Task: structure prediction
Amino acid sequence: MEKTGDLSAGLKKISWAETYMPVLSIIKQDFLERKPLKKIRISATLHVTKETAALIKTLSAGGAEVFLTPSNPLSTDNDVAAALREIGVHVMAWRGMSNEEYFSAIDWALSQKPNIIIDDGADAIVSYHEKSEAFQVFGALEETTTGVRRVKALEEKKALRFTVIAVNNAKTKWLFDNRYGTGQSALDGIMRATQILFAGKCVVVAGYGMVGRGIANRARGLGSKVIVTEVDPIRALEAVMDGYEVMPMLEAARRGDVFITATGNKNVIDINHFEVMKQGAILANAGHFDVEINVKALYAIASNVREINSCTEEITLKNGKKVYLLAKGRLVNLVCASGHPSEVMDMSFSNQALCTEFLVNTQPKEKKLIEVPEEIDKKVAWLKLKAFGVEIDKLSYEQEEYLASW
Ligand SMILES: NC(=O)c1ccc[n+]([C@@H]2O[C@H](COP(=O)([O-])OP(=O)(O)OC[C@H]3O[C@@H](n4cnc5c(N)ncnc54)[C@H](O)[C@@H]3O)[C@@H](O)[C@H]2O)c1
Result:
């Protein structure tokens, strides 16, 4: 697989993303003037996309030295990596890294003794904790639901060694990125890999969190019949009242044309499900790790595996049926498409940039997972509304008094 990219294409992609990231651009300009991250070393383990490049340029504008590695072996845009190297960012990333190369890239970034770790999925944070002679950091930032869950597990075991800000939990992140971002880009990935018509298809969405509901809503908008599977009774009830069919995966497995997992959990689609699927079923994952579809078990019951294109494998099962696995069970929106649209990453990465400055300024001593400060979340929302040209009403003094009264 190609390890190098096209520098000029990379620069154009980054400039395209920046056009649609007005909030981050404002923060970048402000960072450029104030240099709040002067002399700060940052290791960033993020999908190497054009939007990530816009974040890295913002951190660099603030004075930081950044060491970038990918948060998935298959999600790097080599053109973007080449462009970032050209502008002086230290990057160890290429599309198609082996698992070993992926983790040694993280080790390389951590060996630079960063003051701040920016992570997506918590592989860098966990790698830090597995080292015996760990250096001191101001803290870390975690981008996604699965990473926040892993950090929470470290905290509960009293093993966490520094403050981690759950950037995922900012309202201006999870309500938008997880829902509208993945909702659109997961379907984009499936379309680019397969060119199927969604209208009239039966789409099974596993998990009705923000990611699952975004995908379900977009698939319905394209004319698909959508089935939701869940394990949480409240989320299942929400899916029912949003008008979807809800049933166990074993039942849905017999009916689905397209399966999309979005649970953050493992083996959600397993051997007993593959065995009852229809001829031609398409399997895609939008959750963070490649564990949601039991890919190992799928290969084990295959009589033949054939590559249809760089994103799609045709798997002939021993029962004679063929199913199609996208992106080897990894994040379909990042491997088969280009990740989230820039407009939503504008909000997610503005939170990352402002929280980086917050960590530098406060250098908190607690070994805890903490939320994004409300003023940062609100600031991102106000700036985004302004960029959309949307104004809203303000509470009058009388209304504030009324709402505060008992
Ligand atoms: N593809 C992307 O770019 C992208 C973006 C954001 C988040 N993510 C990832 O997507 C995943 C989901 O994120 P979220 O914010 O919606 O999480 P969430 O925790 O809010 O929702 C997950 C849902 O899955 C359900 N679930 C768990 N196990 C299940 C099972 N066996 N069967 C059916 N449902 C099950 C849970 O009850 C929950 O409602 C996470 O791994 C997250 O990191 C991916």
The domain at 180-335 is CATH 3.40.50.720 (Rossmann fold). The mean pLDDT is 97.
